[in-house]
Amino acid sequence: MALDDTKKTRDFKVVGTRPDRPDGIDKVTGRARFGADMVAPGMLTGRILRSPHAHARIVKIDASKAEALSGVKAVVTRADFGEVPEDVADVLDNCMAGDKALYDGHAVAAVAASSPAVARKALKLIEVEYEVLPHVTDVDAAIKPDAPVLHEGRQQETVPEGLSQNVIARSEFGHGDIEAGLKQADRVVERTYRTAATHQGYIEPHACLATMGADGRADLWVCTQGHYMVRNTCAAILGMEQGQLRVTASEIGGGFGGKTVVFLEPVALMLAKKAGRPVKMVMSRSEVLRATGPTSSTSIDVKIGMTKDGKITAGFAELRYQGGAYPGSPVDMGAMSGFAPYDLENVKTVGWDVVTNRPKAAAYRAPGAPMAAFAIESAIDEAAKAFGLDPLEVRLMNGADEGTKASYGPTYPAIGLKATLEAAKSHPHWSAPLGENQGRGVACGFWFNFGGDTCVSLNITPDGTVTVSEGNPDIGGSRASMTMMAAEELGIPYDQVRTIIADTGSLGQNEVTDGSRVTFAVGLATIEAARAAKREMCRRAAMIWGIDDEAVEWEDGAARPAGPNAGKFPPMTLKEIAAIASNTGGPIAGHHEVNAEGAGVSFATHMVDVELDRDTGSTKILRYTVFQDAGKAVHPSYVEGQFQGGAVQGIGWALNEEYIYGEDGILQNAGFLDYRIPVASDLPMIDTVILEIPNPGHPYGVRGVGETSIVPPLAAIANAVSEAAGVRMTQLPMSPPRVLAAVQAKAEG
User: Fold this and answer.
1) Alpha-carbon dihedral 116, 122, 123, 128, rounded to 10 degrees
2) What is the distance between the alpha carbons of residues 194 and 315, in angstroms, rounded to a whole number?
3) With contact defined as beta carbons under 8 Å apart, do 459 and 466 qualify?
4) Cα 456 → chain centroid
5) What is the widest separation between alpha-carbon atoms in the chain?
6) d(CA 522, CA 226)
7) Measured between alpha carbons, how far is 46 from 119 in angstroms, rounded to an integer?
8) Contact at 8 Å (CB) between 282 and 300?
9) 129-145 CB burial, b ≥16 within 10 A, e <16
10) Using CA atoms, how far apart are residues 482 and 461, in angstroms rounded to an integer?
């Protein structure tokens, strides 16, 4: 759907304001119900037995002792699941191991018992015979021809001969002639960069409550970013019709992409089926870190050519992402997004999807993009500084604009990259002085944004209040945004609209809450549903007045004659029309279903100041500013929160966070004590600058904002630390020992 009247700026009355968040009272008073808060009569406790090995063949599972234990009502292994469609085979195998356990923490059996204590005891009674196999957890090691192989026969035809079968797929993007472009350069920067796997760090662990009746109908209460995805996936795995499974999304205590897949849910349903009673399952923090999806660890080669005046003549990157034990790392997204901020004649990226003995990677806010940006933005910064050039000016010179052919193929419409760079250049932060052992870094970032299947229903009650039903869990303020857009379109106050998250039986298919799609796609559908309701109310008013439908228009919350020729009738407000709806044709509602397109790409520029302690290698973030194009900020406070949240997660990723595996392939830091995420004392106040370059694909100009903000931080912080340390940092995280070693190595010559 196109932007409304691009020739003038719309005068919004609700959109762009900062009303109270609709979920605030429930959350601060404890009334909001999260995944673990639901209970049911006769409920059992479900627990999972997990592999203690990084790679092992499952020779035999003997659950007889556990099944004989008093209080145990069901035991489930892979044998309880039948054949499943190919598109969910890996999903099932990740939820319950088949022939092999492929990583430390892989589920191999599950129990449902009358209490947590009985469930824990039952797990100890399950006897599993393993044949331990060689393992590999490093992406570069997994590529080698002699690496232990996880899957036979899964390699795609795109992969050339001679590489390990762990290399599943190859992707390539770009245009022009790289070698010719490099020959035009006055300097070529060529380096290898590495990033560690990091977890999304959501506070709420995975949890669900499953019930299944004797008639085969089932209900599932779950914390998820997409309950329609949960329904579709679980129904396929259990051989159910989708309409027989109703899924209700709880409130969600963080997801960031990590709750866009299933882990416990098919197992809970199978336990409930076997036990004939409701089963509740809640992961421990250790299980979350060992067995759910972190992001990929990566190894990236970059080669960039630049002239002495700052023109990038060629850009090349080869990206190796390990996606855990199953195919599907986000390397293609990384390969597409890395050079996306720039207008380049010669650009090429090659991506390799690699499997390793780690948990299957899941999305983490702009999946794949932060790692690619870290490598490419670091190389651009190094080249610019080698010529003594201003890194912002270099990015402006090479920046993409409307009409640029993107590095991954399409031609951009109106975009906001250069607006973010100009805002950064003119901001006081850029000209602020730096002290001793301090450095300043900048970096740009890009995200695609998505649309997808969306269904919204808007119902007007007899007293004139409005309920919007949408099918996407609210993980970033979408209930407030939908409420505001509905109120804006209907011309009524914000507090007269309530938005709810409907279960899967109440609306048509809705895609997962990911890809920064919800404010765009669900907002578009909400606006259209409100417009449908307005058309119906105008029709009702026309009927009452005895004039043609086309002679009535909607303005400021009321139906009015469209002009003097339509007659002199007093406006009929929404409340007045709703009050007599039973006499004019019945209830009034608006609906809209769409596979939304035109999401509009998003760009950001980040600027950060750091201070380095040369005695310890510790880095302190002194100042941080985010400049990002939001298209139209529906609720600016939520937008600022998204900007700040992405920056904070990027700070943790850049400085501290990493999965650490021992030589035995076992995760060494499966808890927040040893896996250190940033806390308040680690952070400055994150300043934000919202730019608004309207997205031509949305009636209000909205662009998604939730993911772009995590793309630049890794590179911006690396550029700042490199400046402060006087040595280029190429591996994340830049933990104190790593930084100290780099500083000392340079000092020693």
Assistant:
1) -170
2) 18
3) yes
4) 22
5) 91
6) 13
7) 7
8) no
9) ebeebebbbbbbbbbee
10) 17
Nearest to 420 by CA among 621, 686, 692, 608: 692
Alpha carbons 209 and 279: distance in angstroms, whole number:
6
Summarised one tens digit per residue, pLDDT across range 40-97 is: 999 999 999 999 999 999 999 999 999 999 999 999 999 999 999 999 999 999 999 9
What is the SS3 assignment for 118?
Answer: helix
Q: Which pLDDT score, from 0 to 100, does residue 3 have?
A: 76
Return the SS3 of 212.
strand
pLDDT in tens, 653-701: 999 999 999 999 999 999 999 999 999 999 999 999 999 999 999 999 9
CA atoms of 102 and 283, how far apart (whole Å): 19
Q: Quick check: 668 and 358 in contact, CB under 8 A?
A: no
Look up residue 224 and give its amino acid: T
Q: Which of 299, 286, 300 is nearest to 359 (CA)?
A: 286
With contact defined as beta carbons under 8 Å apart, do 494 and 484 qualify? yes
Task: Give the pairing of strands 497-501 and 44-50.
Answer: unpaired
Distance CA 263, CA 288 (A): 10
CB 487 within 8 A of CB 557: no
Secondary structure of 709-727 in HEC code, one letter for each residue: HHCCHHHHHHHHHHHHHCC
> What is the pTM assigned to this prediction?
0.97
State the DSSP code for 428.
H
What's the one-letter identity of residue 363?
A
Distance of CA 216 to the CA centre of its chain: 33
Q: What is the DSSP track for 209-224?
A: EEEE-TTS-EEEEE--
Report how far apart, in Å, the C-alpha atoms of 238 and of each of 63, 75, 326, 345, 383 are: 21, 16, 21, 51, 55
CB distance 286 to 115 below 8 Å: no
Strands (E), 270-371: 279-282, 297-306, 312-322, 347-354
